[in-house]
């Protein structure tokens, strides 16, 4: 590729990243089956690459008075969710009881089981990420100390009314009230389940960065942010690689991304793994090449699966433990 063509390709990539995607039309797409899951084959969302959009800045959290420990406890709630999901998927068991107690008590975990991986690469990645997430829980609990909140009730199951199925239904990956999405059924489902979480975790830590005043706490959050970004990039890379042969997987990430964006307000804070044509979009960034950040309310919109201001739902059926509990009103 000569330099002119390379520059043109990069320009097109920038246009794609800055583009405000139209919402997918959930009905009317041709369905295909991937790993036993109905995925929409006609969920595009690439928009018009010839239009140069006005860059949408990542929102800045409005509150700067939230105590640092409250911010870290908010993060710990999210780490409980990720750690339990990955621990069950990789090891077949959840967190040890010594890592779940604290203020607010310990909530029950609904669902979760070991994935029978067929791709040894995906299995190895699952083991590594699971151990990282368990270590995040352990580390945050040690940093927060006596103010640590306990694990809230979590829904990581695969029933028709469970959080994963509800999220997949909202994204159009499955249809019908009785349909289910099982993230433990196979490698591809596991990757899509992980995709639902990972980008949200990165944006949560990015959004919280300006709220933390204590240098020690800031360094702790920055370290976890970096690890979560590695995880998210890895999940996106593997999905894209598999999606070259099975395009429905790439389409599924676009649908999930759009569904998340429909929950957290009018600002475009999400991207799938497809750029212009067949180009990849492994790193979701704004027009300045910066990772997206979400407020705590926006993060809760996604994990509660609600556009409105609520204090429980989705993956947290009884809400979070701690002072930060309410999603934004969108």
From TrEMBL:
<dbReference type="Pfam" id="PF13668">
    <property type="entry name" value="Ferritin_2"/>
</dbReference>
<dbReference type="InterPro" id="IPR052965">
    <property type="entry name" value="Pigment-catalase-like"/>
</dbReference>
<protein>
    <recommendedName>
        <fullName>Ferritin-like domain-containing protein</fullName>
    </recommendedName>
</protein>
<dbReference type="InterPro" id="IPR009078">
    <property type="entry name" value="Ferritin-like_SF"/>
</dbReference>
């Amino acid at each position: 590729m000569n330099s002119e063509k390379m520059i043109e390709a990069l320009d097109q990539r920038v246009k794609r990243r800055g583009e405000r995607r139209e919402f997918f039309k959930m009905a009317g797409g041709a369905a295909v089956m991937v790993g036993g899951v109905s995925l929409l084959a006609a969920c595009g969302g690439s928009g018009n690459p010839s239009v140069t959009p006005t860059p949408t800045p990542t929102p800045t959290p409005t509150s700067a008075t939230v105590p640092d420990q409250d911010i870290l406890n908010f993060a710990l709630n999210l780490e409980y969710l990720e750690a339990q999901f990955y621990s069950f998927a990789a090891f077949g068991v959840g967190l040890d009881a010594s890592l779940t107690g604290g203020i607010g008590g310990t909530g029950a975990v609904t669902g979760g089981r070991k994935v029978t991986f067929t791709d040894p690469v995906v299995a190895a990645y699952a083991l590594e990420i699971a151990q990282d997430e368990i270590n995040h829980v352990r580390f945050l609990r040690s940093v927060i100390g006596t103010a640590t909140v306990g694990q809230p009730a979590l829904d990581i199951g695969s029933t028709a009314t469970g959080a994963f199925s509800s999220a997949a239904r909202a994204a159009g990956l499955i249809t019908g009230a009785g349909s289910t999405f099982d993230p433990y059924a196979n490698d591809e489902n596991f990757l899509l389940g992980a995709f639902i979480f990972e980008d949200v975790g990165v944006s949560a830590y990015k959004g919280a960065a300006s709220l933390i005043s204590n240098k020690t706490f800031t360094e702790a959050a920055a370290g976890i942010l970096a690890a979560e970004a590695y995880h998210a990039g890895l999940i996106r890379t593997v999905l894209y690689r598999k999606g070259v042969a099975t395009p429905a997987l790439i389409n599924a990430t676009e649908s999930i991304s759009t569904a998340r964006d429909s929950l957290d307000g009018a600002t475009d804070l999400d991207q799938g793994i497809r750029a212009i044509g067949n180009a990849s979009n492994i790193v979701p960034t704004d027009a300045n090449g910066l990772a997206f950040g979400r407020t705590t309310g926006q993060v809760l919109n996604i994990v509660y699966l609600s556009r409105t201001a609520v204090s429980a739902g989705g993956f947290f059926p009884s809400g979070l433990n701690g002072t930060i509990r309410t999603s934004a009103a969108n």
